[in-house]
Specification:
This protein folds into 2 domains: 118 residues, Aspartate Aminotransferase, domain 1, CATH 3.90.1150; 211 residues, Aspartate Aminotransferase, domain 2 (3-Layer(aba) Sandwich), CATH 3.40.640.10. It contains 13 helices and 12 strands. The strands form 3 sheets. It has a 7-stranded mixed beta sheet with strand order 2-8-7-6-5-3-4. A 3-stranded antiparallel beta sheet has the order 9-12-11, with helices on one face. Strands 1-10 form a two-stranded parallel ribbon. Helix 3 packs parallel to helix 11, helix 4 packs parallel to helix 5 and helix 11 crosses helix 13. The protein is globular and about 60 Å long. Belongs to the class-II pyridoxal-phosphate-dependent aminotransferase family. BioF subfamily.
């Protein structure tokens, strides 16, 4: 076995020295405040049975897809799922990818072209950043959820591209893409989408929304864009199935032309083995369950979010938490060692809550990330927050 190169050993040593060295955790029987299974669908046995029924109905017995979607892997369940997703999420078309990471890398490495500009929220997910880096367009960040900074960056980009300030009078084919998340994974907050849509409308920009942490929760089991009635204003939406939907995979929602383009140019779709029939059937089964039985799960999650915020206020912890009305709540505990210490204390008390360390977040903004679920009890929520309060005191 070859020795690890000195440069790589040095990078590991640096991580170890600043208390940010990662390792794979062992599963433990603790109260779940960590997973993305917001609605509890990953643990629903009825969905497992429905998945089997769908496979039997289709006569699909292959364990694997056997190839990429452009070769042998585009089995019969794919068009069924994509047709359902387009209708359910009020989109012209849907294209399924193996994961949210694959969807974002595929989109941002292939759609923005040389001469185009991508403006992204400074807290955007790593998969979007990676996709942008792989592409040929220039990119600039704007301050988190800051509409004024976004307007400034759009105007600056238009001048840099030598474009007028309106789509109707543009004389060349340069484009501006703006990307944000409907619910941010590390802060749990949301941008003000309606004025952002107006900026894009006025300046002729294309808006892309990553709906990973909103999929299945808002808009009667759809997403935040659907809830707000903005579906016709969005160039592309990325929805994922590994969080509230309790499965795996993702899809890009947009026009039929965008779908055709991605099939031809998104390398993360073209050059990988497709999802298995079982995985695709599982996604369909989750949606069918959500349509018939999901209302109580969604209401349960929203009630727990409300109770969590009420307990924060009652315990006087508002200044410690980032304001959020989503399933994600973050307690700022500056310093990797300090936040790991509090996480360890809560884990010892029987709660599965994880620290988010720098460099994943900025130094000084290390945090505990609490993920709420439909299946958490009010007593569990109250108890863990009292434990936090006692520790901080």
């Amino acid at each position: 076995m070859g020795k690890l190169p000195a440069k790589l050993e040095s990078k590991l040593a640096e991580r170890s020295a600043n208390q940010s060295l990662r390792s794979l955790p062992e599963e433990a029987d603790r109260v779940d405040f960590s997973s993305n299974d917001y609605l509890g669908l990953a643990r629903e046995r009825a969905i497992g049975k429905k998945t089997k029924d769908l496979l039997l109905l289709d006569g699909e017995w292959r364990r694997g897809a056997s190839g990429s979607r452009l070769l042998s892997g585009n089995h019969a369940l794919y068009p069924k799922l994509e047709s359902f997703l387009a209708k359910h999420h009020n989109s012209e078309a849907a294209l399924v990818f193996n994961s949210g990471y694959d969807a974002n890398v595929g989109f941002f490495s292939s759609v923005p072209q040389r001469g185009d500009m991508v403006l992204y929220d400074e807290l955007i997910h790593a998969s979007i950043r990676d996709g942008i880096k792989m592409g040929n367009a220039k990119s600039y960040k704007f301050a988190h959820n800051d509409l004024e900074d976004l307007r400034t960056k759009v105007e600056k980009s238009l001048r840099a591209l030598c474009l007028p300030t309106g789509r109707q009078s543009r004389s060349n084919d340069s484009e501006i893409y703006i990307v944000t998340e409907s619910v941010f994974s590390m802060d749990g907050d949301s941008p003000d989408l309606k004025p952002m849509v107006q900026i894009c409308r006025d300046k002729g920009c294309h808006l892309i929304i990553d709906e990973a942490h909103a999929t299945g929760i808002y808009g009667d089991g759809r997403d935040l864009v659907c809830k707000m009635g903005l579906k016709d204003e969005i160039f592309a939406r990325i929805i994922t199935f590994g969080k509230a939907m309790g499965g795996h995979g993702a899809a890009i929602l947009g026009s039929e032309d965008l779908k055709t383009y991605l099939i031809n140019f998104a390398r993360s779709l073209i050059y990988t083995t497709a999802l298995s029939p079982h995985s695709v059937a599982g996604i369909l089964a989750s949606y069918h369950f959500l349509e018939s039985n999901g209302k109580d799960h969604i209401i349960g999650l929203l009630n727990n979010i409300e109770h969590f915020n009420a307990q924060i206020r009652e315990l006087g912890l508002e200044k410690n938490f980032i304001e959020s009305n989503s399933a994600i709540h973050c307690l700022i505990v500056p310093g990797n060692q300090q936040v790991k210490s509090l996480a360890g204390h809560l884990q010892q008390a029987g709660y599965n809550v994880k620290p988010i360390l720098s460099p994943t977040v900025k130094g000084g903004e290390e945090r505990l990330r609490f993920c709420l679920h439909a299946f958490n009890t009010r007593e569990e929520i109250t108890s863990i927050l009292k434990e936090v309060k006692n520790y901080l005191n």
